[in-house]
Amino acid sequence: MTNQSFPVSGAGLGLRREKLDEMLENDLTAVDFMEVAPENWINVGGTFGKKFRQFTEQYDFMCHGLSLSIGSPAPLDENFVKDVGRFMQKHDVNHYSEHLTYCSDDGHLYDLLPIPFTEEAVHYVAERIRRVQDILQQEISMENASYYTPAPGKEMEEIEFLNAVLDEADCGLLLDVNNIYVNSINHLYDPIEFLKQLPAKRIRYAHIAGHYNEADDLIVDTHGADIIDPVWDILDKAYEHFGVFPTLLERDFNIPAVPELLSEVKKIANMQKQWQEINSTVRQK
């Protein structure tokens, strides 16, 4: 993999409205790029809009959507996609990603639900992704999603479905490291074997986050806790297998003080540096 595949570089942090002032008061030199949900910022003006502009003028930005609902039986909301495109142009956002799920039919369901792992669903979702890319006139990335029960009619495994969609849609992959771990526990598979079957050429960036242990065999992807060692280990294996790629810390709930967030961002950066040094040494031999 080369840096030409990546819309940003380094270690990133999600920007949350409730942390704007605290972030402006802290030294954020450890942060290379940021990410927002466009739904939370489109048409936001006033004080919040001015503060947001301070960040977009200083950092590379990514958009990670919440409501595209790419697998929905309802028609694609093309007006929303156009709004996202205008928002990205206004703030010079580098890339748009979304969840490989659905969250609406006649109305929004306020949850991210799994798409059936079927050949028909592959074709349906891929066509909708291609339409979004046509409207935006750029590639988008889809995130491997957490899920807690498979949708009915399963014809293939999760990894087969994901790879088939990425290939047919010819889009990028947002690699969510925590989702691999969550699904591996909930659905009893080897996370490293899953990881190694992902297409290296499609990785654009990654998310890493914490979760909640509901039971020994049920983990909920909350983005509301510190990252645990097994999840860090998967990221380490990913850098070893694929090379270093941009990686963003997600924290959406129980958000700690900014210095605590930055400690995890710095851990990402240190891991990236270590693997870059290892890879550089290997190439020199």
Q: What is the mean predicted local confidence, pLDDT?
A: 92
H/E element order: EHEHEHEEEHEHEHHEEEHEH
Determine the CATH topology.
TIM Barrel
User: Got a strand count?
Assistant: 12
Large-scale geometry:
globular
Q: Which strand order spans the largest sheet, edge to edge or round the barrel?
A: 1-2-3-4-7-8-9-12
Radius of gyration of CA atoms, rounded to a whole number: 18 Å
Low-confidence stretches: none
CATH class: Alpha Beta
First-last Cα distance: 19 Å
Characterize the largest beta sheet: strand count, sense, and whether it forms a barrel. Answer: 8 strands, parallel, barrel
Number of domains: 1
Features of the shown structure:
alpha/beta; 285 residues; 41% helix; single chain; eight-stranded parallel β-barrel; two-stranded antiparallel ribbon; TIM Barrel
Give a brief outline of the structure:
The chain is of the alpha/beta class. 41% of the residues lie in helices and 18% in strands.
Question: Could you characterize what this model shows?
Answer:
It is a single chain. The longest helix is centred in the C-terminal third of the chain and has 27 residues, at 258-284. The protein has helices at 20-25, 46-56, 78-91, 119-136, 158-169, 177-186, 191-196, 229-242, 258-284; strands spanning 11-14, 33-36, 60-64, 95-99, 102-104, 108-113, 141-143, 172-176, 203-208, 212-215, 218-220, 247-249. α4 runs parallel beside α5 (158-169). The chain has one domain: Alpha-Beta Barrel (TIM Barrel). β3, α3 and β4 (95-99) form a beta-alpha-beta unit. It is globular and about 50 Å long. The protein is built from 9 helices and 12 strands. The model has no long low-confidence stretch (mean pLDDT 92). The strands form 3 sheets. An 8-stranded parallel β-barrel has the order 1-2-3-4-7-8-9-12. The protein is of the alpha/beta class.
